[in-house]
Amino acid sequence: MEISIDFVIRSAGAIDPETLRVYAERRLAFALRRFEHHTRHATVRFGDVNGPKGGVDSCCTIALQLQDGRHIDVKAITAWPFASVTLAAKRLNAVIRRELDKRQLSVRRPRRNRSEIIA
Questions:
Q1: Which residues contact 82 (CB under 8 A, 6 or more apart)?
Q2: Mean pLDDT: which of 3-7, 77-81, 115-119 is highest?
């Protein structure tokens, strides 16, 4: 994948951070492969929602910068870091597809003059 990706792993619990990074890269490559030419940079952040209190809540946030300067942010909180990555990547794919579809619709539809509508 040609997109530059930054990873910030604050706490992954007992999971090896390198294993989590490799998994996240693979999931993002799959989620973004159709949109690779529209994307510029991605930042993936992992954190523990409960912090030092413990617990199993894991948060994954993905911030994506598109070529046209727009930003897309998605967040997923689940019990496990790998599930958070999967859900966040799925959400990112859906949001990008929706955003690009909106842009395509606005480009394809010619605007009508007010006189054409009335006549």
A1: 15, 20, 23
A2: 77-81
pLDDT of residue 100: 83
Instruction: Name residues whose C-beta falls within 8 Å of residue 113's C-beta, 6 or more positions apart in sequence.
Output: none
Strand partners, 66: 39
Give the single-character DSSP code of 68: T
Whether residue 40 contacts residue 78, with contact meaning beta carbons closer than 8 Å, is answered with no
Domain ranges within the chain, ordered by starting residue: 4-118
Range list of H helices, the chain: 17-32, 81-108, 114-118
Q: What are the structure tokens assigned to 110, written together?
A: 């010619």
Residues 6+ apart with CB under 8 A from 16: none
Please count the residues of the chain.
119
CATH class of 4-118: alpha beta
> Mean pLDDT score of the chain, rounded to an integer?
81
Residues 6+ apart with CB under 8 A from 55: 48, 49
7 vs 94, which has greater pLDDT?
Answer: 94
